[in-house]
Automatic annotation (TrEMBL):
Organism annotation: Asanoa ferruginea
Transmembrane regions: 18-38, 58-82, 159-176, 182-202, 233-254, 260-283, 295-312, 318-342, 363-380, 386-405
Keyword Protein biosynthesis: no
PANTHER family tied to this protein: C-METHYLTRANSFERASE, MAJOR FACILITATOR SUPERFAMILY TRANSPORTER
Protein name as catalogued: MFS transporter
Subcellular location: Cell membrane
Alphabetically ordered keywords of this record: Membrane, Transmembrane, Transmembrane helix
Length: 411
C-alpha cells in the first residue's frame, strides 16, 4: 500500500511500513497526468509529420532526434541549478510549465517545419529541465535498498499516463472530425492540471547536511566524472541511447508490416505502454532482490528481439502483439532501473546533477541514433536498417555487461 512520505532519518521499522514514499506517489501522479498530455501529441505526431506534411524518413529522424536529444544539455543545467539553489521542486515545475505552453505552440506553428522544430525544442527544454530534479526527489525520498521499487512504481504511474494519452487522442480525433488542433488544445489543458498537482502535493526534500555546508559549485559537479562507478554508468547509458531507434520508427514499421488502418495508429503506443505499466513495478522489485544489472541487460535482449520481429517475414496480429510486448518489456527493464543504479553512487548534494549526466549521455546518443537510422532507412530500406539496429543492440548490450559487471560496480 502507498503511505506517507518516508522520513530518511527514521529507523528501519518505520521505513518498512511504506511500500514507497508519499512523495514518490505525488511525483508519479504528476508524471501520469503529464504523460497523458505528452502522449496525446506523440501518438499523432508521426502521422502528422510523415503523412500530413509528407516528410521523408530522414527529415522525420531529425525531428524525432530533436524531440528527445537536441536539448539534452539542459538536463545537466537543470540538475546543477536544482542542486545549487536546493530547489528541485521549483526547477521541475518550470520544466513542466514549459512543456505545457509548447502544446499551444503547435497550433501557432501550423504546417511550418521550422516552427514545429522550434516548438518541439521548447517542449524538450521543459523535459530537460524537469527530469533530473524529479528523479533526484525520488532518490532523496527513498532508502537506497528500495530505489528499484520506487522507480518501478513511479514509472508504472508514468506508463498509465502513456497508456491513456493515445486513447484520449483517438477520442478527441473521432469527436472533432480528425482535427489535430483539437488534440493540441486538449493536451495543453491536461498539462496544466499536471503542473497544479506538482505545486499542491509534491514536497521539497531537504538534504541531510550541516547547516553551514557550502552550496555545490561547478568544480564539485565536474568532480563527479572522477567517480569510476558513475563513469561506467554514463557510458552504459550512452550505449543504450545508441541502440534505441525511437518509438515513431518502430510504430511506422509496424503499421506498414501489419497494414493497420491509419485511424488506429495511436493505439500502437497504447500497446507498448500497457506492457510497460504491467511490468515496471514487478521488474523494479525484482531488481532490488536479484540485482539491477541483470534486469537492465534483459532490457537490451528485449530491444534486440523487438527489432528482429520488425524484420520478420510474416506480419499480422501475432507480430503486432509480440513486438509491442517486447518493446514494453525493454522500457520497463531499463528506464527506472538505470536511475536506481545511479542513485547510490551519487552524493545527496549533487544527486540531480549526477542523474542529469547519465540522462544527457543517453539523450545525446539517441539524437545521433535517430538521425542515422533515418539515413539507413532512406539508403537501405526499413528491413535492412532495422536488422542493423538489432546488431547494434546486441553489441551495445555485450559492452554494457562488461562495464556493469566490472569488479566493484554496485548492483
Amino acid at each position: 500500500m502507498y503511505l506517507s512520505t518516508i522520513d530518511r532519518t527514521a529507523g528501519p521499522r518505520a521505513r518498512g511500513r511504506a511500500f514507497v514514499a508519499g512523495n514518490v506517489v505525488a511525483l508519479g501522479t504528476v508524471s501520469l497526468v503529464t504523460d497523458v498530455s505528452a502522449e496525446m501529441v506523440t501518438a499523432v505526431l508521426p502521422l502528422y509529420l510523415v503523412l500530413g506534411l509528407n516528410l521523408s524518413p530522414l527529415a522525420y529522424g531529425v525531428v524525432d532526434g530533436v524531440y528527445t536529444g537536441a536539448t539534452a544539455v539542459l538536463r545537466i543545467v537543470g540538475g546543477y541549478v536544482a542542486d545549487r539553489i536546493r530547489a528541485r521542486k521549483a526547477l521541475a515545475g518550470l520544466g513542466y510549465a514549459l512543456s505545457a505552453v509548447a502544446k499551444l505552440g503547435l497550433l501557432a506553428a501550423g504546417r511550418s517545419l521550422t516552427g514545429i522544430g522550434f516548438v518541439v525544442a521548447v517542449d524538450r527544454m521543459g523535459k530537460g529541465l524537469r527530469t533530473a530534479p524529479r528523479d533526484a526527489l525520488i532518490t532523496l525520498s527513498t532508502p537506497p535498498s528500495a530505489l528499484g521499487r520506487a522507480f518501478g512504481v513511479h514509472r508504472t504511474m508514468d506508463a498509465v499516463g502513456a497508456f491513456l494519452g493515445p486513447l484520449v487522442a483517438l477520442a478527441v480525433l473521432a469527436g472533432s472530425g480528425q482535427s489535430y488542433d483539437a488534440v493540441f488544445v486538449t493536451s495543453f489543458c491536461v498539462a496544466v492540471l499536471g503542473v497544479a498537482v506538482l505545486v499542491l502535493f509534491v514536497r521539497e526534500r531537504a538534504v541531510v547536511a550541516p547547516v553551514a555546508a557550502p552550496r555545490p559549485g561547478l568544480r564539485d559537479a565536474a568532480a563527479l566524472l572522477r567517480v569510476a562507478g558513475l563513469r561506467r554508468l554514463l557510458l552504459a547509458a550512452t550505449l543504450l541511447g545508441v541502440a534505441t531507434i525511437g518509438d515513431g520508427f518502430v510504430y511506422l514499421m509496424l503499421q506498414r508490416r501489419t497494414e493497420l488502418g491509419l485511424v488506429w495508429f495511436p493505439l500502437l503506443a497504447v500497446g507498448t505502454s500497457l506492457g510497460y505499466l504491467l511490468l515496471a513495478a514487478p521488474l523494479g522489485v525484482l531488481a532490488d532482490r536479484i540485482g539491477r544489472r541483470p534486469v537492465l541487460l534483459a532490457g537490451y535482449a528485449a530491444l534486440a528481439l523487438t527489432y528482429l520481429l520488425l524484420a520478420a517475414p510474416v506480419g499480422g496480429w501475432a507480430l503486432l502483439v509480440a513486438a509491442l510486448g517486447a518493446y514494453g518489456l525493454f522500457y520497463a527493464a531499463t528506464d527506472g532501473v538505470l536511475m536506481a543504479l545511479a542513485g547510490p553512487v551519487l552524493p545527496d548534494t549533487l544527486r540531480a546533477t549526477g542523474l542529469a549526466l547519465v540522462q544527457t549521455g543517453q539523450a545525446l546518443a539517441y539524437l545521433v541514433s535517430s538521425v542515422l537510422f533515418g539515413l539507413a532507412w532512406a539508403a537501405w530500406g526499413p528491413t535492412a536498417a532495422v536488422l542493423a539496429a538489432a546488431l547494434v543492440a546486441v553489441v551495445a548490450g555485450g559492452v554494457t555487461a562488461g562495464l556493469l559487471f566490472h569488479k566493484g560496480q554496485a548492483a
